[in-house]
Amino acid sequence: MNEQIQHFLDEIESHIKKIPLDCEPKALYQPVSYCLDKGGKRIRPLMTLLACDMFGGDVKQAIPPALGLELFHNFTLMHDDIMDNAPLRRNHPTVHEKWDANTAILSGDVLFALSCRYVSQVPGHLLRHVLDLFYQTVIEVCEGQQYDMDFESRHKVSANEYLEMIRLKTAVLPATCLQTGAIIAGATSEDQEKIYHFGELIGLAFQLRDDWLDVFGQIEEFGKQSGGDIIANKKTWLYIHALERGSEKQTRLLRDVYSDNYSASDTEKVRLVKNIYDDLGISGIAQNAMKAYYKQAFEYLASIDLPDERKEGLAQIANYLFNRKR
Amino acid sequence: MNEQIQHFLDEIESHIKKIPLDCEPKALYQPVSYCLDKGGKRIRPLMTLLACDMFGGDVKQAIPPALGLELFHNFTLMHDDIMDNAPLRRNHPTVHEKWDANTAILSGDVLFALSCRYVSQVPGHLLRHVLDLFYQTVIEVCEGQQYDMDFESRHKVSANEYLEMIRLKTAVLPATCLQTGAIIAGATSEDQEKIYHFGELIGLAFQLRDDWLDVFGQIEEFGKQSGGDIIANKKTWLYIHALERGSEKQTRLLRDVYSDNYSASDTEKVRLVKNIYDDLGISGIAQNAMKAYYKQAFEYLASIDLPDERKEGLAQIANYLFNRKR
């Protein structure tokens, strides 16, 4: 990690610590503190600062909206974890587990409001543009989460539908983080569009890698049980592509294993699905798809008319996300 | 109801109908439509238009933020109904009952995002002011809801704590609706403050009347079971004041009746509490408190340097709220 990135991460962390959350009523604000204290990689606000800096903007001006975008991300985690009934987040009990669902709903709501407030702390002549982008993204992220939930109960989900879902749920936010930094730096709308697409493609690749790591990542490195998505019957990129490519026998088995009345052990279930993935070469296909997204993303970055050294920070972050082991 | 009010209400209704909600994913947007279609009195957006008009503003400019404030109000209902486990709202099943809690969480979130978008549709030079007020109010409303939930499990709640809770949960929103209209009309900050306090006091009186009607309203007129708050062990204004004024015997009985292991029938419970209220003259005390808020509210309205006929609409709405039977 280069010095600039480390410096920006330190800045973000120190500003997050300064967000006044020691307020009344405690039952509302403590879960917000808890959620923010548990860390996270702070990739999204980092993207805002890096993009602002790349386009020659004043990074100080980008800090409040960067924080706002990180708060928004944490709000989505708090509410998604209720909906997904997730017990753990960043190795700690989720808010609805540690407190209860009502707490997670309302603390999430106030976190959303706080995120709006921070995002709006930009110079007046940029306020409308930043907000239009932000609200549009919030709406899209909600749509993505809804599609994700819809897909759970749907028999058939196409690869394109899956892609659109993860684009909305996962990819538009990093794209928006980057564009927000670019807006603050006064980048041209052409460059804003390019950096948005760069972020969107990195986001898609990020989610694909997430799906891939769950099955093919090294357990000790990934730090969670291999095949968690399979055990939870998640229709991931891998599963959907296996269904589209498998023989009649393989697709039947994939569907059987994912049906409610399937009774084998979790280990056996993971083994069966992984075997099919291996037979169909799904790991390689997924890796190729990721590489293609990365390639396209870097083409967008390359098309921005700035010297390469200005782009180093963002390129490094993208590579880190691409090569991460967990 | 005067012609102007009817005209504004028609405007609001026709604009609400035009909000594009026939979107995908349906599972996200249908509950939003459902919630908005079930009506409501539209008092809050009406207040925005009336205030804007009173201060001589262009009412057309006030319509988008007025809609946004109504959307925000509906968002709070959707989430509060989950937290309060309410089966009915406006005589129809609540969203979490008709669908499920996850749907009500996520549709609520998107409704909140939509409300932000509408509130932000104001002339550029007013955007920051309108948003600062709005976000502050959103945060306060969340705080109010949290205090309300905290009070359920607290043994002792003082009259002042209760007032502060309803101020946050109920009164700051109408106050903000009025001030938003005033901002758009270019009212002075002094006048903005006056109209804010007018709305806040009307809001307090409104909630007191709600508490009062639940026990002393005529069943056939109020349209719901008398004493619902008592049955639900709600620490209302009436209950808290009865506790503060009752003899040792009366307060012990009030606490016993509200304890979890109290076993008499609902009718008996309501009868017992109502008897104590009657013995202590709580109905009259509550009505006097309401009147005092109204008086103070109208003093704020009177202190605004405009001819009385300009204030007629708002005065009429305030009187309607004061005299409502349900």
Which descriptor suits the 3D outline of chain A? globular
* DSSP helical segment count of chain A: 16
What number is the mean pLDDT of chain A? 94
Encode the helix/strand succession of chain A as letters.
HHHHEEHHHHHHHHHHHH
Helix-strand makeup class of chain A: mainly alpha
Outline the biggest β-sheet of chain A: 2 strands, antiparallel
What oligomeric arrangement do these chains adopt?
Answer: homodimer
Q: Greatest interface and its residue counts? A: A-B, 34 and 34 residues
Strand neighbour order, sheet with most strands of chain A: 1-2
Instruction: Specify the helix fraction band of chain A.
Output: over 70%
N- to C-terminal separation of chain A?
17 Å
Question: pLDDT under 50 segments of chain A (min length 5)?
Answer: none
User: How many beta-strand elements of chain A?
Assistant: 2
Beta-strand portion of chain A reads under 5%
Write down the Rg of chain A. Answer: 20 Å
